[in-house]
């Protein structure tokens, strides 16, 4: 009897209609930024209540340009979480500012809002929260803090497309909201991202930032008034995004169902700490991330290999970033943010994507039990 196929950590679902539309774009001869990008921006704007939306080629670019729109630069500080993909802090460095880390809440694994105000200084210009695994940060408390201290908020919603706060979709409320459309995201364009803005004036400024600062003139000429990068999205990518947008709600519903099955089938005797159950269904279950029992944390690499041997892909999202050499060189050390360090040392990310079956979840849970027994 043959072994079941390898179950990857994630796999995008791209339907045949979308593939056919991509082929049409390729045949059209116009494959860079064009009408499909405009159509995708309009569709996203409609989803977010008419707010302006502008596309870029990565969520990282979206975050960096959002900080630039806020006027964040050298000498400024931006408060964020140490438990995220390193891009969250790298964009702060990219604009010449200093990322100021605040430890995470042990239950939600998002930035601990109880600790944020103590980290605010006269140099603080913005808050940069992250919705880890698609579970929203408490928007009410977040914006209350921002208002009290006159701070901008740049939401790193890279992982939370389709998540909601008090019934309102993330992106339809708040200040500047950044999404990623990377290949592993709930909605993908292969690579890409967008920023949800407040005004059309901001949107025009963002357009300059994403393409060399250029303003096209009616006579065919151009003007360059400010620094700009090269971060425009292609029509090929936007076509993938439009196809994904047609299915994102069903994708997220399936993710929620798979997450529920993980909770139902999990063996509690293993000693793992499961992710927050999200009983109010506010999140989009971008990832399912149990924490290894503390006695097994030092053998995480062996656990990952044991799962691979059983045909299951496992990831790590994320190590506590302040322990990377880049940030140790800036003065950070082990013990600075103990909750994030504990979670970062024990987290393992298990397969979760819409094409998975209930039987796949059962297989993963059985493999976890078997792998733990083999390592004990």
Strand arrangement within the widest β-sheet reads 1-9-8-5-4-2-3
Q: Which CATH class of the largest domain?
A: Alpha Beta
What is the 3D shape?
A: globular
Give helix % range.
25-40%
Q: Which fold does the CATH topology of the largest domain refer to?
A: Aspartate Aminotransferase, domain 2
Number of strands: 11
Q: How does this structure look, described?
A:
The protein has 13 helices and eleven strands. The chain is globular and about 70 Å long. It folds into two domains: 16-245, Type I PLP-dependent aspartate aminotransferase-like (Major domain) (Aspartate Aminotransferase, domain 2, 3-Layer(aba) Sandwich); 248-375, Aspartate Aminotransferase, domain 1 (Alpha-Beta Complex). The protein has a seven-stranded mixed beta sheet, with helices on both faces. Helix 1 packs antiparallel against helix 8 (235-245). With 376 residues, the protein is an alpha/beta fold. Helices cover 38% and strands 11% of the residues.
